[in-house]
């Protein structure tokens, strides 16, 4: 006999993720209750991942869990905030206990890693698997790194390497094995520590979830500016170059790869302090260009000529 | 050409719901930002409604919107809290602009009514329509009405009438017209004001979303108690009795009707103060029984005999 909704929640989603003195009441009542932290503001974001759209139905539960967590916590990272709690709404077409076991273990292990207790949720039936997470973060009042605060002349930076995730997915789909690239797709890293380290340096920030050009485009629109990027400085991993060659590596790094890296701007007068952010436990940080007046993103080749780029970004409809 | 995700959000989900000084940053960035209110705790709940499971795909957008809002705000009401903000994750199979127009207008008109600004969201593609709302409420610290705080001897009360929604849905499905019952299904009322009025009187509270017996059962389990209900006191509307007869009316009132009424307990010493809660702008409140030791819910007929009730509550799987 299949599990009921409540048995299912009890069996798979009832773990205590961690002690957190701000959680007054966890899951199981009509609402969870949080006590706000003095002097802190609350950042909130919600994100849905649907089977056959955002992930393959054949993927193991732990991969979906890692990607859901990364997508959501990456939004918290992009404000420079600290994760404080989350809620998880899970729609299932059937009760597949093997999948659920993998999924829920990975959810809780990830949440423990990022100190983000699961305080509420919902399990319902639907045509396919669909996961919506809502995540809360906390940040000292006035310190959040929004998209709209860049100025012309600010340097543009990214964390980590771009393009790996897109090729990782293609390799996974075709059954080819390349551990590093596939793992960048399956288990991306939300850049929480990097975001926090940049709180007093960055003027604006966004996470790269739809491809660098698309997401930097959102930052440019919000700041009413353009950007000039130096193609050769875009960080692409050696693994990616080896797999697809240099030209395609740069193309994938610019277009629709959801790497969950941070893209941010730093005022000129603070750029020399960027060295202080470099830490062995953080992802590498690379300067890739400069914010400019106007509303265009120009990508320059090594000889200074402008490279034409096709329509960037992932289209949902 | 169909709208892109961002055009769609701009066209349908970009309304400013209302001014709220606690919203530091609304939709459009990686996160929204809220400033917590001094001395208040934050209540949070998330709820999903899926096409063909929680609603019919043929239902107009404004009905789905009303029911999503009711289901979510009802959880806030059941804590005695005030709605403060919400996030909306919408999955669509196609861009149906007529449906979206109805849906988004009703979302914003409901949210304005309940002073609950939409501060963030997500639009994605999926196999069917699926709506996940996450709602936040605020309540003075320590005042939330949880399920676990009832004591033996406390009176059991409900707001409004029970059973209407279940029969309303059946009438809607069969194409029959009975304005009141159908509207109780299509446009249920989250009992926000009633919940707030009960903050200093009720010992425990839950909302009736899976049927009275099922939800009172959750309250009993959480409080480690049983309940004794007087069948003839269960409030059923005249419309419901007229439509299905007295016996079925009581049966539907007990079983899986998602009326979004509040069920709550009041300590004996405070029961005479319940008269002060009666206000012309609030739903009627009816005493239906008493909390008792043990772990059973007994439903008594007028002659005091125990009535056997079939398996209560809606089963998702």
Task: Kindly describe this structure.
- The structure is a homodimer of 317-residue chains.
- Chain A has 317 residues and is an alpha+beta fold.
- Chain A has two domains: 5-140, 60s Ribosomal Protein L30, Chain: A (2-Layer Sandwich); 147-307, Phosphoribosyl-aminoimidazole Synthetase, Chain A, domain 2 (Alpha-Beta Complex).
- Chain A is built from nine helices and 13 strands.
- The first copy, chain A, has helices at 5-12, 61-77, 97-113, 164-173, 179-186, 192-197, 212-223, 238-244, 246-254; strands at residues 23-25, 32-34, 40-50, 82-92, 118-125, 130-140, 155-159, 204-208, 226-230, 261-266, 285-292, 297-300, 306-307.
- In chain A, the strands form three sheets. In chain A, strands 8-10-7-11-9-12-13 form a seven-stranded mixed sheet, with helices on both faces.
- The longest helix of chain A is centred in the first third of the chain and has 17 residues, at 61-77.
- Strand 2 (32-34) of chain A pairs antiparallel with strand 3 (40-50) of chain B.
- For CATH, the homologous superfamily of the largest domain in chain A is named as PurM-like C-terminal domain
Total number of domains of chain A: 2
Q: Could you please say which CATH topology of the largest domain in chain A applies here?
A: Phosphoribosyl-aminoimidazole Synthetase, Chain A, domain 2
Characterize the biggest β-sheet of chain A.
7 strands, mixed
Helix content of chain A: 25-40%
**Quick one: overall form of chain A?**
globular
Oligomer: homodimer
> What is the residue-averaged pLDDT of chain A?
92
- H/E series of chain A, N to C? HEEEHEHEEEHHHEHEHHEEEE
**Radius of gyration of chain A in whole Å, from Cα?**
20 Å
Contiguous uncertain segments of 5+ residues of chain A: none
Strand-residue fraction of chain A? 25-35%
Helix tally of chain A equals 9
**Strand segment tally of chain A:** 13
Distance between the termini of chain A: 39 Å
Give the strand order of the largest sheet of chain A, numbering strands 1, 2, ... along the chain.
8-10-7-11-9-12-13
Q: Biggest interface pair, residues each?
A: A-B, 73 and 73 residues
């Amino acid at each position: 006999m299949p599990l009921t909704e409540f048995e299912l929640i009890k069996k798979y989603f009832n773990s205590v993720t961690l002690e957190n003195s701000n959680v007054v009441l966890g899951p199981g009542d009509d609402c969870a209750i949080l006590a706000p932290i003095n002097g802190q503001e609350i950042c909130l974001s919600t994100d849905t991942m649907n089977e056959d759209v955002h992930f393959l139905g054949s993927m193991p539960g732990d991969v979906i869990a890692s990607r859901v967590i990364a997508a959501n916590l990456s939004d918290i990272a992009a404000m420079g905030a600290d994760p404080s709690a989350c809620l998880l709404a899970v729609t299932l077409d059937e009760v597949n206990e093997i999948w659920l076991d993998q999924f829920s273990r990975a959810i809780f292990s990830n949440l423990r890693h990022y100190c983000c207790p699961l305080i509420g949720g919902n399990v319902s039936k639907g045509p396919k698997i669909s996961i919506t997470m809502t995540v809360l973060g906390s940040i000292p009042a006035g310190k959040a790194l929004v998209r709209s605060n860049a100025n012309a002349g600010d340097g543009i930076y990214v964390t980590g390497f771009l393009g790996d995730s897109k090729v990782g997915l293609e390799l996974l789909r075709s059954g080819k094995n390349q551990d590093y690239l596939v793992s960048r797709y399956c288990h991306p890293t939300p850049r929480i520590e990097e975001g926090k380290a940049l709180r007093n340096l960055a003027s604006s920030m966004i996470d790269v979830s739809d491809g660098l050009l698309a997401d930097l485009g959102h930052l440019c629109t919000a700041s009413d500016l353009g950007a000039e990027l130096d193609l050769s400085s875009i960080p692409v991993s050696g693994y990616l170059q080896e797999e697809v060659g240099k030209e395609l590596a740069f193309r994938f790094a610019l277009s629709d790869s959801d790497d969950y890296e941070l893209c941010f701007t730093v005022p000129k007068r603070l750029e020399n302090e960027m060295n202080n952010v470099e830490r062995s436990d953080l992802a590498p940080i690379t300067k890739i260009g400069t914010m400019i007046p106007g509303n265009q993103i120009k990508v320059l080749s090594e000889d200074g000529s402008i490279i034409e780029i096709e329509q960037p970004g992932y289209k949902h409809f």
